[in-house]
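Q: How would the C-alpha cells look for this protein?
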Amino acid sequence: MSARRPIALTCGDPAGVGPELIARLLGSERDNLAPIGPASWLASLPVAGVAVGPDGWRASPGKPEAEGHRVALAAMERAAEGCRSGEFSAVVTGPVSKAGLASVGFRHPGQTEFFAERWGGQPVMAFAGGRMTLALATWHLPLSEVPAVLSTEVVSRATESLDRLLSKLGKGRRIGVCGINPHAGEGGLLGAEDDRVIRPAVDRLAAKGLDVRGPIPGDTAFARHLAGEFDGLVAMYHDQGLAPLKAVDFAEAANLTLGLPFVRTSPDHGTAYDLAGKGTADGRSLASALRLARFLAAP
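A: Here is the predicted structure in C-alpha cell form.
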C-alpha cells in the first residue's frame, strides 16, 4: 500500500447503483481508496472504509428513503472535511437524487454546488474521459433562467477552466465555444446573446492567447469536435452539452468539477433505481471518474 493519501469514494444514494458499482470496482482497484457509507455496506467490501449514518441501518436497492438521502449527505460532508483536513487527496462521488436530498433539507442544486460551498472557489462543471471533452458555462438552472445568468465573465471562466484542464490532460487546446441561440443568433436575427455576451468573451480570450473560436452554432459544434477540429467545447447550458455527450460517451465520460481547491469527480449518470440490486449497471463511467481523480490529484 502506498503512503499517498487515499481517494474518498462516497456511496451516493445507498438505494441506487452507486454502492454496487463501487463494490465491483474495488474487486480490481483497491490501492489508496477509502469508501464512505453505511457500516453494513462497508462490512462487505475488501478495503477499510469510513462509516456514516446510523448503526445497523441497511438500504433496500431500488427503494429510496429519507434515511438513505441523509446517509448520502453525510458521506459528502465527511469527504469534504477529509479533503480539507488532508486525510483524502480527492473525492469521487456516487450518484445522488437531487429531489431526495432536497426532501431532507439539502439546499443546493447538486453536488457541484455543495463542494464549492464547503471548499470555496468558483466551480465549473466539466466532462472528460471519453471522445468528448466539455465544460458548461451554466448547469443546474431552469432553461428560462440561463440567458439572465449568462455573462461574458461566466463564459470566460468556463473557457479558461477548460483550457487548463486540456493542458493538464496533455491534449491540444483548441476550444470551440457554442452559441446559445439557433445558428449562433444569425447576426442578431435569432437572439442577441451570442453577439452581446459570447463573442466579446471569445475575442478577449483570443487576445490573451487562448486558441478559441466562437460562438459556434450548437447544432454543428459537437460534430466538429468529434471530427477533430476542436479539442474541447464550452456549452452554454446543461442539456446543450450533455445531450450530445451522453449520446456518444455515456459509458465512458466522467463528471469533474473545475475551479475548486480539491479534485472532485463522479460518474456521469444518476442513481438508476430501476437497475439497483440487479447487477446489470454499467460501471465504466465510475472507473473513468476514478482514473481522472487519480491523474488530477497526482503530485
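The mean pLDDT is 96.

The chain is about 40% helix and 15% strand.

Upvote if useful.
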